[in-house]
């Protein structure tokens, strides 16, 4: 487990393996959101633009869009919301295709993150996980990938687990990014930084609507305010966000790897969330 906690009001920090690399899983959707909304703020990516869903766009794994009919119209805003609050992989890959990996990584560098890299889309990551890395995108391979994922026939030597350039981060670096998101929304929103205050407010609005609550907020009352994004693949469970405890907002990032029991991993993350909240209640 890797943990980084920073209480904004006091500057207190807690860290455990905070500089060790971890697979982000779906936490990599936070950097995509940051780049997308930054492009929107710059006038290059209107959120009301419509995209027509096609079967070719559909990605395996989490989400609802893969179950919808081709021809369904979706706004960029819809896609951004689904990417975060239900971790929709199809929405993610559509948006990543719009903004590009290069732009997301440039945004990360501008935010001071040197060891966080987005190198794979959801489809690329999951296909590699089931031994289809580099295979052509055909209907037949899609069926094979879906079947292997359903049966959990996963490659333990996949680069998802061993390649530090394959969508990895450190607990400290993800906390740095979340700190950039939080800071302009405090003290009247006048703080300057690599992300515009309007971008940060929009990001927090979406992150606060997260519907997957089986990690950091699991042991907390439903009314507790938290803006966060989970991430999971087999043997990996993560959560990263901002926990608004009564005495201080707290940036909390928790990543795991090599889990023997995914459920116990999620519960360990929940215990971190509970401990942080109680410390600042």
Automatic annotation (TrEMBL):
Transmembrane segments: none annotated. It catalyses: a beta-lactam + H2O = a substituted beta-amino acid. Keywords: Antibiotic resistance, Hydrolase. Its EC number is 3.5.2.6. InterPro entries: Beta-lactam/transpept-like, Beta-lactam_cat, Beta-lactam_class-A, Beta-lactam_class-A_AS. One of its GO terms (molecular function) is beta-lactamase activity. Residues 2-256 form the Beta-lactamase class A catalytic domain. This is Beta-lactamase.
């Amino acid at each position: 487990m890797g943990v980084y906690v920073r209480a904004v009001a006091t500057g207190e920090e807690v860290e455990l393996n905070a500089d060790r690399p971890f697979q982000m899983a779906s936490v990599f959707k936070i950097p995509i959101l940051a780049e997308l909304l930054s492009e929107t703020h710059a006038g290059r990516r209107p959120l009301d633009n419509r995209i027509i869903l096609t079967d070719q766009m559909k990605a395996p794994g989490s989400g609802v869009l893969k179950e919808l009919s081709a021809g369904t119209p979706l706004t960029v805003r819809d896609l951004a919301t689904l990417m975060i609050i239900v971790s929709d992989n199809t929405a993610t890959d559509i948006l990543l295709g719009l903004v590009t990996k290069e732009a997301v990584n440039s945004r990360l560098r501008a935010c001071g993150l040197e060891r966080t890299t987005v190198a794979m889309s959801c489809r690329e990551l999951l296909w590699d996980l089931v031994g289809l890395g580099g295979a052509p995108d055909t209907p037949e391979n899609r069926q094979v990938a879906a079947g292997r994922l359903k049966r959990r026939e996963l490659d333990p030597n996949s680069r998802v687990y061993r390649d530090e350039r394959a969508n990895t981060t450190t607990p400290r670096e993800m906390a740095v990014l979340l700190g950039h998101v939080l800071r302009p929304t405090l003290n009247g929103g006048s703080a300057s930084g690599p992300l515009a205050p309007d971008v940060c407010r929009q990001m927090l609005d979406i992150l606060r609507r997260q519907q997957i609550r089986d990690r950091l907020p699991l042991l907390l009352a439903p009314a507790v305010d938290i803006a966060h994004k989970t991430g999971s693949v087999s043997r990996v469970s993560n959560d990263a966000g901002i926990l608004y405890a009564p005495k201080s907002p707290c940036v909390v990032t928790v990543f795991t790897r090599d889990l023997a029991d995914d459920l116990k991993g999620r519960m360990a993350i929940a215990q971190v969330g509970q401990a942080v909240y109680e410390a600042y209640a």
